Amino acid sequence: MNKKIRNLLAATVMFSGLVTFGCANDVKSFQTDLSKQIETVDKQYKKLDYLSTDDQTTLKKELENSKEVEKSGSRSDLEDEISHLKKILTPFESKDRKIAGEITTAGELRYNAAIDTTNKEKLTDLIAKSRDFSDYESFEQACQTALTQTKKQLVEAVSNQANAAIGSTYIPQTDKVDLTAILEKVKKAENITVAYSYLSNLQTTTSQVISRTKANEITVKAAEAKAEEDKKAAQAAAEKAKAEADRVAQAQAAQAAQAAQAAQAAQAAQAAQAAQAAQAAEDTSGSINNTNHTKWAVEDGYNWHNRKGHSRIIPPGGSLPPGYHWQV
């Protein structure tokens, strides 16, 4: 073998050794990467709060399998396993987020005064089991069912409250229009999830409307009370004025009656005076009956009551006998 051939063989052996050394280093590097990836996945999955026991078992088996692959001398297997581990947590993280969201919602809903004891107990039970459930699908379905029933009850309760507010006599018209518009959206919602999306707005608006309605009711009732008070005051004033008018009228009537009586008395007195004057005139007319009617003549010392046997009737033109006087 000549020198050139010997040099060529030496170079070939050297290159082969370098390649083998390089491949060995590459495998070692991938094994290290896989080990780190296994550690990362292990830490991350342990941070997930809502994994089913079935999924936890699946992940543990995956990690055990990765550790076995780590011992492999195949670069291809190592690369594939690293790639697989980088994506393995994605579906589990999605499940965790979904359950976490539902449990958070359950926690918020169970303290709402509008839900009944049955729904509250269902939500409380789900929250208690959320850290230790076996099958994701069945637990997630239980969450969906409980949340849907609770949301439906809340929507109905708040809608009833809103309808009651709308029916109030004292609700301001603008509030009635606004609240009715939100209720219409709730009624037309194609499912309870859509209807529930309006609940916060409906609940807030209803609360504000009820507050304003109460304030308006107080104002209206105060005005009505004032009007009623004014009406009663006016009635009292009218009754007082009427009573005063009646009193004055009665006083005037009494005064008129007294005046009439006085007038009658005056007339009677005048008549008496006239009669007395006439009698006096007759008495002074002498002893002749100068009237056109008969007159009584009573003996002096006697009067009308004891005249019997001592009186005479004197015709017109007759003379008064001596010792007699005229008796009217």
What does this structure look like?
By secondary structure, the chain is mainly α. Helix content is 76%, strand content 4%. The chain has a three-stranded antiparallel sheet, with no helix packed on it. The longest helix has 85 residues, at 199-283. The chain is rod-shaped. The protein starts with a helix and ends with a strand.
Beta-strand residue percentage = under 5%
Structural Rg? 64 Å
Q: Report the strand count.
A: 3
- How much helicity do the residues have? over 70%
Tally of alpha and pi helices: 8
Strand and helix order? HHHHHHHHEEE
- Quaternary class: single chain
Low-confidence stretches are 9-22
Key features of this structure:
mainly alpha, 8 helices, 3-stranded antiparallel sheet, single chain, 4% strand, 328 residues
Would you summarize the structure shown here?
This protein is mostly helical. It is built from eight helices and three strands; from the N terminus they run ααααααααβββ.
Topology:
Layout: H1 3-47, H2 53-70, H3 75-109, H4 117-129, H5 136-166, H6 173-188, H7 192-197, H8 199-283, E1 295-299, E2 311-314, E3 324-327
Antiparallel strand pairs: 1-2, 1-3
